[in-house]
Amino acid sequence: MILPFLALAQPHPLLQDFSGFQQGDNIFLRWTFRSGSLCEGTRIERSQDGMIFTEIGEIPGICGSPEVAFTYTFTDSTPQTNAVNIYRLELGNTGFTTNLQVEYLVAGDGGYSLLSTGNEVELLIADPPARNGLAQVFSTSGSLLKEFSFSNRRFLLTENIFNSGVYIFRLQYENGAVLTGKFIRP
After folding, report:
1. What is the mean pLDDT of each run of 10 residues along the chain (186 residues)?
2. pTM score of the predicted model
3. Contact indicator for 22, 4 with CB cutoff of 8 Å
4. How far is CA 20 from CA 16, 127, 181, in A?
5. Rounded to 5 degrees, what angle do the CA atoms 12, 153, 89 make?
6. In this predicted structure, what is the pLDDT of residue 159?
7. SS3 93
């Protein structure tokens, strides 16, 4: 089983952890109150820029437990696509957590999406079969043009490729899985 790309934030003093990850079409958030920590309600907020936040959920009532650590979860079913979603919690009258950044990527039928930004083409892989691998870019005649290691779910395919045209990419993951496809450099 491949672990999802987990994002962690430095939690609020009442919390022992605050984390999140993409799970299918959603972002799954999880936080745990330290034993003996209590507050009055929790608001879950999301932002695209880290400045302006919108409330996307609330857990009313007393949160935490006087005797044991207590964990809560929240599922964001409407994250911004192919972007970093920024979350924070307001824990009753005790203030906000630090911001938690979770990237949400959507894959097409081939398990990936291509994002063209000007003259660059970025590869987005929502659910990679492993964390690390080797990427290769070939011309349509089969010549190897570029090779590099990767450990992210998104990266540029066109860096140091200057000519417009059709190219083939091949991703070889550390567990032996292979992903191939084509892209056009404008």
Report:
1. 60 90 92 91 96 96 90 96 94 92 87 85 87 94 94 88 91 94 90
2. 0.75
3. yes
4. 14, 15, 30
5. 20
6. 86
7. coil
- For the domain with range 113-185, which CATH number is right: 3.40.50.720, 1.25.40.10, 3.10.180.10, 2.60.40.3080? 2.60.40.3080
Whether domain 7-104 has CATH 2.60.40.10: yes
Q: What is the 3-state secondary structure (H, E, C) of 97-140?
A: CCCEEEEECCCCCCCCEEEEECCEEEEECCCCCCCCEEEEEEEC
If we measure between CA atoms, which residue out of 127, 129, 105 comes closest to residue 115?
Answer: 105
Beta-strand pair 165-173/133-139: antiparallel
Name the amino acid, one letter, at 159: E
**Cα 116 to Cα 104: distance, rounded to the nearest angstrom:** 17
